[in-house]
Amino acid sequence: MMSDALIDIQAVRHSYRTASGPLPVLDGLELSVPEGGFVAVVGPSGCGKSTLTRLVAGLLIPDEGEVRVHGSRITAPRSNVGMAFQNPVLLEWRTILQNVLLPLEIVPTKLTKAEGEARARKLLALVGLEGFENKRPSELSGGMKQRASLCRALIHSPEVLILDEPFGALDAFTREDLWQIMHRVKAEEPFTGILITHDLRESIFLADQVVVLSGRPAKTQFVLDIPDTGLRTLDDLYTPIAAERLNILRHQIEVAQGRIPAEAVT
Ligand SMILES: Nc1ncnc2c1ncn2[C@@H]1O[C@H](COP(=O)(O)OP(=O)(O)OP(=O)(O)O)[C@@H](O)[C@H]1O
């Protein structure tokens, strides 16, 4: 199918082979992210959200259906992807700056060593870590480590940024700080991204589209567009429209969990 989406997932089905037989995880996954788009994916625990990120990174080829990036079918692992996870996994024997530079040692880059370092310093300043370049990971708080991990995911200007619950382990205030930092980063360093999250407020604050997956095997159950209304502030989460969006998504999650019938929310 022709599409101008940067990431285009169509009719994907996949089962893991396990000792006790095939485990169907995805059945009817559809997802489309335009260039510069930021899509949040929410769904019941264990429904296949991380599996979706593996498909986009080319770490997993689906049994059926297609995963395309820029129109090309993904058939092998992709280096042009940036990833950040709940656990920031920074290397203790490297400084923060050296940690951020790590992807440039692994994936092909046009940047010289000096340019790479300048970019790393710029990204660190953008997330408020100026002055921490030469610290070790253990000298940083959880939120600061996660900010460094975000810089590392962006250092090679990836075609796609995949964030798999990056703020999940942080306390509520730190998480809200990170949300605001994400907006700053997106404005200064535009990216195309997929955010996996369990936090509905996070999804409507950060993304321009929220995709709800059904229970396993997951299909795309519901899509909510969040129109671009310019810069978002935390106050926007306490408006009637935000309350309405959260209510819609909460009900969709209840449907996905099988706790209420689909008819109850239409
Ligand atoms: N390599 C694998 N082999 C077999 N089963 C797997 C494999 N990876 C994941 N699974 C199973 O597939 C299902 C979906 O896993 P996945 O990690 O994609 O879900 P998730 O939605 O990200 O979960 P959570 O919300 O708990 O983070 C789970 O039941 C998991 O146990």
Automatic annotation (TrEMBL):
Q: Which Gene3D superfamilies would you find in this protein's record?
A: P-loop containing nucleotide triphosphate hydrolases
Source organism's superkingdom? Bacteria
The alphabetized UniProt keywords are: ATP-binding, Nucleotide-binding, Transport
The residue stretches assigned to a coiled coil in this entry are none
The terms under GO molecular function for this entry are: ATP binding; ATP hydrolysis activity
**Where do the ABC transporter domain residues begin and end?**
7-240
Q: Which InterPro entries match?
A: AAA+_ATPase, ABC_transporter-like_ATP-bd, ABC_transporter-like_CS, ABC_transporter_ATP-bind, P-loop_NTPase
Task: Output the Pfam families linked to this UniProt entry.
Answer: ABC_tran
Annotated family: Belongs to the ABC transporter superfamily.
Entry's PANTHER family? ALIPHATIC SULFONATES IMPORT ATP-BINDING PROTEIN SSUB, TAURINE IMPORT ATP-BINDING PROTEIN-RELATED
From the Swiss-Prot or TrEMBL record, give the protein name. Answer: NitT/TauT family transport system ATP-binding protein
Q: Which organism is it from?
A: Pontivivens marinum
